[in-house]
Amino acid sequence: MEPRTPTRRTGRPPRLSREAILAAAQRILGEEGADQLSMRRLAKELSSTPMALYHHVRDKDELLLLLLESHASAFPRPELPAEPRGRLIAAAQVLHDILAECPWIVEVLASDDLFAVSALWIVENMIDAAVECGLTPEQAVYVYRVIWYYTAGELTIRLGRERRRATLDRQPHRTQALAALDPEVFPRLASLASGWDELTNTDTHHEGLVAIVDGLLTALRPTA
Amino acid sequence: MEPRTPTRRTGRPPRLSREAILAAAQRILGEEGADQLSMRRLAKELSSTPMALYHHVRDKDELLLLLLESHASAFPRPELPAEPRGRLIAAAQVLHDILAECPWIVEVLASDDLFAVSALWIVENMIDAAVECGLTPEQAVYVYRVIWYYTAGELTIRLGRERRRATLDRQPHRTQALAALDPEVFPRLASLASGWDELTNTDTHHEGLVAIVDGLLTALRPTA
DNA sequence: ACCTGAACACCGTTCAAGT
DNA sequence: ACCTGAACACCGTTCAAGT
Fold first, then answer.
1. What span, in angstroms and rounded, lies between the C-alpha atoms of A128 and B190?
2. Euclidean distance between CA atoms B34 and B158, whole angstroms
3. Is A79's Cβ below 8 Å from some Cβ in B?
4. Strand D: which nucleotides have any atom within 7 A of a protein Cβ?
5. Rounded to the nearest 10 degrees, how much is the dihedral formed by the CA atoms of A33, A35, A38, A43?
6. Where are the strands (E) in chain B, listed by range?
7. CA-to-CA distance for A179 and A119, rounded, in angstroms?
8. Helix (H, G, I), strand (E, B), or coil: what is residue A106?
9. pLDDT digit string (tens) for B46-91?
10. Can you tell me whether residue B30 is helix, strand or coil?
11. H or E stretch including B43?
12. Which of B58, B69, B138, B146 to mutate to test the interface with A (most CBs of A within 10 A)?
């Protein structure tokens, strides 16, 4: 009379799982960098074949989005200020901080400017805060987009720098190219040449973000 | 007594040339898109072999930079306003307009945030205008960088959209994903869902740029 | 149901040889 | 000097077959 356990399995028991695949992918990402993460390399890491992976993820893009998803959901979710301008800035900052640890995802995200669901609360907060700042919903989306472009750009260039570091910097450095410029036609660039690398390597994301938010708010807000 | 012509050629006469290679590359770019431009495809276009190309360009990156170079130098160079804020904005706008026609270059440019020499006058003008706005050279470079990130981000996402269009849009659209959100936890996103695509497809680069410039100037400028 | 092997249709680039 | 062919060391993905 005892019924057969309803969750009876059929077929071969799985050797791989999404979790195992994601864990292996994270290992490669951490130890060898995003450029080394290929379906073939990942299969090797799991002592499996490339094709076995396609039983657990639809394609490589889905794999990358799953990685972002797990990274974003593990990220500590900070208290946001109640005051709208501060909330907008703080939310945008979290967005940046989450993605700064996986800039390789921007290439995937760029295809359609949207996100992992576990990061959607950030977008919601940004738009809501912008509306509370006195903007229309349409303007709020526009503010969100400008900030997203800024963030995506910073990440793209961050990724480029990382790649460059990985390729061991054998190419002539930009400082030299700048120093070689004719100071008659490029006075500013020529005089800045020696300090260029230092200037462009400093992290100024946050100040830029604040300035952008304030610029947008003053441009759009009805002058009360 | 007549000396032998000093430019006497030795060896085999060239069948390929940089110009021919660049022209063919531009043809592929225009007709089939940036994704189709590979060294092998380019060789085929020229009825040659992939390896013949390496006699005229160092590698694929150099080829892409040469393409940018020729594109940028052909671009009409507009009069810039004398007034510094306007000049800063106008220069940044040209930068954007030049690159908007070849967003695929951003991946290459991103490796080190610098340019084709025939676009350097823009950077020079941006930094010079920022200094004339009352900023220090260091602040001016920082302003340039924020604008460059914004521009690079817009281009990256533009490229993504183009790629998406090329892959024939067979994936479920974001509007659906947004509409499926719980309006209790994502009230803003849920209510915007139906208009999302339209809102995110409109070109708002210029307004964003102006707002960013003004935001940066008010944040940095000594309150006179 | 889950996994394997071989194959397809590509990449960028190096190297040794040909004219 | 300029070009070719074959090869190296990869990609993501599909398809037919195995257990």
1. 12
2. 13
3. no
4. 1-7, 10-16, 18-19
5. -30
6. none
7. 43
8. helix
9. 999 999 999 999 999 999 999 999 999 999 999 999 999 999 999 9
10. helix
11. helix B39-45
12. B146
Highest average pLDDT, of A13-17, B8-12, B111-115, B167-171, comes from: A13-17
* Buried residues in A123-149 as b, exposed as e (16+ CB within 10 A): bbbbbbbbbebebebebbbbbbbbbbb
Closest CA to B93 of B215, B208, B214: B208
Q: Which domains does chain A have, with CATH numbers?
A: 58-220 (1.10.357.10)
Phi first, then psi, for residue A101 (nearest 5°) are -85, -10
What share of residues in chain B are helix, strand, coil (percent, to 5)?
65, 0, 35
Question: If you search the block for the tokens 């994704």, which residue do you land on?
Answer: B35
Structure tokens at A176: 């030299």
Write the CA distances from A182 to A36, A158, B65, B75, integer angstroms: 41, 29, 21, 22
* Nearest C-alpha neighbor of A60 from the set A83, A12, A92, A28: A28
Please, which pLDDT band fits residue A177 given cuts at 50, 70 and 90? Answer: confident
Which ranges of chain A would DSSP assign to H, the alpha helix?
18-32, 39-45, 50-53, 60-74, 84-100, 106-109, 120-132, 137-166, 174-179, 187-192, 196-201, 205-220
Place of tokens 């040469």: B66
CB A63 within 8 A of CB A21: yes
Write out the two tokens for B21.
Answer: 């290679």
pLDDT tens by residue, A24-70: 999 999 999 999 999 999 999 999 999 999 999 999 999 999 999 99
Tell me, what's the pLDDT at A9?
55
DSSP character for A9? -
- pTM of model > 0.90: yes
d(CA B193, CA B182): 11
Whose CA is closest to A203, among B149, B190, B103? B149
**Strand D–CB A163 distance below 7 A:** no
Determine the Cα angle at B151 with ends A200 and A199, to 5°: 10
Interface of B with A in 187-206 (CB under 8 A): 187-189, 191-192, 195-196, 199-200, 204
